[in-house]
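Septum formation initiator family protein, Candidatus Bilophila faecipullorum. Tokens?
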Amino acid sequence: MINARTTAPSSGATLWKMVILLIALIVNAILFSRLVWGPQSLVSYRELASQHAELVRERDRFDAVNAGLSREIRLLQSDEKYVEKMIRQRLNFVRDNEILYLFTEDAPTRGAVPHDGKN
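Tokens:
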């Protein structure tokens, strides 16, 4: 004959299982909160990802400016017509027998009636 004992689990074993389950739930809650709101969380990751994207865009803008300046340097070193054009535009130099008129937009002309924008 088989001696089969059917014993109900003791209340001490059930209590330990509940304590272990409670500790596991608390640890999981702490880990989840750190995953979402901690210093190395998903929120921080998204902020860093947006900062990275902005820095990449800024770097691309600087690369474009740098390429334009490099092109201008090459032209100034090699193209005499470009050098003359830049001297005339930026330094207001003129050739012989030329007259240069400089107009400013903010200074009103003498004797002129200010334009009020109406026809």
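DSSP finds three helices and no strands in the chain.
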